[in-house]
């Protein structure tokens, strides 16, 4: 297992060199560490958890014209090159396919614990101080407005609407980030999310005070 994990780390670092800062190696590393932390509290396959955490954003559809098949293809080819078992490969690909927020409506009702662990870790990195930083970084990357008082958040968007959305960065808090606390799967994920969620509420409160020059 050790060599496979080490090789995967090197592969991901090389593949994501120069990636947008919210979806780069450091994002992967944080999700990997959070996954291991959560996995300690769950009865799960540690290898599948770590491989999935490391490979989950190897080809994020946002940067590949919305194509969700590239990550699956790249991950399979890499894992096959490492002689990973077909069972391990299938489990990892299932997690990569079903982990994202926008795909939550398409995911099976009963999720394997390994997916729950990695999904919580990925969602935790989208909230709190890191989440705020990543959100504004990506908003800047897309040249979106930070905020516009007359543009309302779009709640209950379909998957296609979500993928095409170019709303303000502040609206993204209401369209996704503030929803994540209630979507945590594990007790450890819920525990960590509480503090990060409250940080975002405090940030928004301060943002509006400064915006309105109160």
Structure summary:
With 214 residues, the chain is mainly alpha-helical.
Task: Characterize the structure shown.
- Residues 24-127 form the HD domain.
- InterPro entries: HD/PDEase_dom, HD_domain.
- Pfam families: HD.
- This is HD domain-containing protein.
- This protein has 10 helices and no strands.
- The protein is mostly helical and 214 residues long.
- It is globular and about 60 Å long.
- The chain folds into 2 domains: 1-101, Cyclin A, domain 1 (Orthogonal Bundle); 127-213, Methane Monooxygenase Hydroxylase, Chain G, domain 1, CATH 1.20.58.
- Helix 2 packs antiparallel against helix 3.
- The mean pLDDT is 90.
